[in-house]
Amino acid sequence: MKTKKAGKNVPGHPMEELIRTERLPHIWCAGCGIGTVFGSVMAAIQKSGYDLDKTAIVSGIGCTARMAGYIRLDSFHTTHGRALPFATGLKLANPELKVLVVSGDGDLLAIGGNHFIHTARRNIDITVICVNNLNYGMTGGQVAPSTPFGAKTTTSVTGCPEEPFNFCYLASACGAVYVARWTSLHIRRLTNSITEAMQKRGFGFVEILTPCPTSFGRRNKIGTALETLKFYHERSVIRNDIDPKEAPIDFGSNIVVGKFVDTERPTFLDNYQLSCRKQIGDWPNFEGTMVQDNQAGDKTYYHER
Ligand code: SF4
Q: What is the average pLDDT across 84-96?
């Protein structure tokens, strides 16, 4: 169904070509940061200049995952935690497609955590945008792998006893070629990062810290959405090019944001094609390797001379 254009005397929305206005109003709460990220994603898609008929977006389940339903692209709102396998299948079946994944921290890195590490390890050529609101917002505010130590959620009423994941460090350690973190306040930098990640060949990861005033903010007395943004404004420190290991999310200190990784390595499809052509390269030659048992029963491996 085509979006109804604005009337003769009503100016159109600048993102009109990318919004399924017939699906509005959206479900997001007043003050939620997801709307800002949605704007940045659409701006990056426009800026990158990719053919919209060859751009697809995939999401899992959760507040952020609704984005796939509001954007006028070929979009897939899939099952919980499974956005990355769907995106991988899409990319491998049609390598010409530019594939984006947008989902929340719980979806991508709790139930979807195993898929996340392997998609990054394989260097599947997709861009993953993770909205980190520090809890499971849609289902009532349960604890998530992003919930800061000590924070209150419906399933950690006396304070979260676990240390959270550092998603950027995880992505980098698994082999992502592009890794950045911003807050929903850093709109220009965020849009640039999503654009850059889309232009990379390989697994790009952009994390965005966003206010969830309804579920997380209320229980943790952070205040209104505006006050959360002020908090991010005062605490955010930009440190580009640092090892993301040095950038855990610590609410007792500064919030480190920036572009941490921008590198190159062959994608899964590059290596798969080499493998199909038997050009993957030589496995080390172990011919002549001997095994000798010592008295303690340990095995010693050495090359015969
Ligand atoms: Fe946003 Fe939280 Fe509301 Fe979900 S529950 S729409 S994350 S404010």
A: 98
Calculate mean pLDDT across residues 251-255.
Answer: 90
d(CA 120, CA 265): 12
Pocket of ligand 1 (CB under 6 A): 28-29, 32, 34, 63, 133, 137-138, 212-215
- Best residue among 37, 64, 138 to mutate for probing ligand 1's pocket (most ligand atoms within 8 Å of CB) is 138
Whole-angstrom Cα distance, residue 191 to residue 206?
Answer: 10
Confidence (pTM): 0.91
Q: How is residue 4 written in tokens? A: 């109804």
* CB contact at 8 A, 167 and 205: yes
Atom nearest to 214 CA in ligand 1: 8
CA 142 vs. chain centroid, Å, equals: 20
Nearest CA to ligand 1 atom 1: 32
**What's the 10 CA to ligand 1 centre distance in angstroms?**
30
Residue 223 pLDDT class (50, 70, 90 cuts): confident
66 CB-near residues (< 8 Å, 6+ apart) = 26, 27, 28, 34, 59, 77
Q: How far is the CA of 139 from the centre of ligand 1 (A)?
A: 10
Question: Which candidate, 228, 230, 236, places its Cα nearest to that of 207?
Answer: 236
Phi-psi domain of 75 (left: phi exceeds 0; alpha: psi -120 through 50; beta: other): beta
Q: Mean pLDDT for the chain?
A: 92
Pairing of strands 74-77, 255-262: unpaired
> Residue 35: pLDDT above 70?
yes
